[in-house]
Amino acid sequence: MQEKVLEEVFKKIKLTIFDVDGVLTDGRLYYSADGEFFKVFNAKDGLGISRLVKAGHLFGIITGRESPFVIKRAKDLGIQYVYQGRLEKLATFESLRKDLGLEYEQIAYMGDDFIDSPILERVGLSACPKDAMPCVQKQCKFISQFGGGMGAARELCDRIWEAQHSC
């Protein structure tokens, strides 16, 4: 997509929604000997999110897995809407969109795999990390130069910030 056209898309975004595994994390799951698993988040992604939250931007998470670490991270960053255990993500997305009274063009979604495709097809700004599955990359208007959990969410947030605020 042309950069000038993409800039106009970024200007309209009021809500940004992320998948977790492969987007806010690198997709790897770390298991302890006790069978607990851990997620590793990127501090730079967090700074990008929290800066926009302080400016009044809305954020959400829709993820297929359930983890107390996701709740903790979302709370720390001020992410307002968190939905876990949602392998069928579209119904959750549509309910949130309607509850907030937003049009599709006002929403960005960053996903990395086929279960994210139904949402990516609808939003105004479809985005993915550079290591997203090829089928997802084909449907995204914005492909980050960074991988999941490695700054992709930060780059998306920075682009929204730059379009809507002065640096």
In short:
The protein is α/β, with parallel strands linked by helices and 167 residues long.
Describe the overall structure.
- The protein is of the alpha/beta class and 167 residues long.
- The chain contains 7 helices and 8 strands, in the order αβββαβαβαβαβαβα.
- β7, α6 and β8 form a beta-alpha-beta unit.
- α1 packs across α7 and α2 packs parallel to α7.
- The protein starts with a helix and ends with a helix.
- The mean pLDDT is 95.
User: Any low-confidence stretches, pLDDT <50, length ≥5?
Assistant: none
Distance N to C terminus: 23 Å
Strand content: 15-25%
Share in helix: 25-40%
CATH architecture: 3-Layer(aba) Sandwich
Mean pLDDT: 95
- Structural classification: alpha/beta
CATH H-level superfamily title: HAD superfamily/HAD-like
Instruction: Just give the CATH class.
Output: Alpha Beta
Element string (H = helix, E = strand): HEEEHEHEHEHEHEH
- Total number of distinct structural domains: 1
Q: Per the principal axes of the C-alpha atoms, what is the gross shape?
A: globular
Give a short account of the largest sheet.
Answer: 6 strands, parallel
Order of adjacent strands in the largest pleated sheet: 5-4-1-6-7-8
Please report the total strand number as a whole number: 8
Query: What would the CATH topology be?
Result: Rossmann fold
Keywords:
167 residues, alpha/beta, Rossmann fold, six-stranded parallel beta sheet, two-stranded antiparallel sheet, 8 strands, globular
How are the secondary structure elements laid out?
Layout: H1 3-11, E1 15-18, E2 30-31, E3 37-38, H2 43-54, E4 58-62, H3 68-77, E5 81-83, H4 89-100, E6 107-110, H5 117-120, E7 125-128, H6 134-137, E8 142-143, H7 152-164
Parallel strand pairs: 1-4, 1-6, 4-5, 6-7, 7-8
Antiparallel strand pairs: 2-3
Helix pairs in contact: 1-7, 2-7
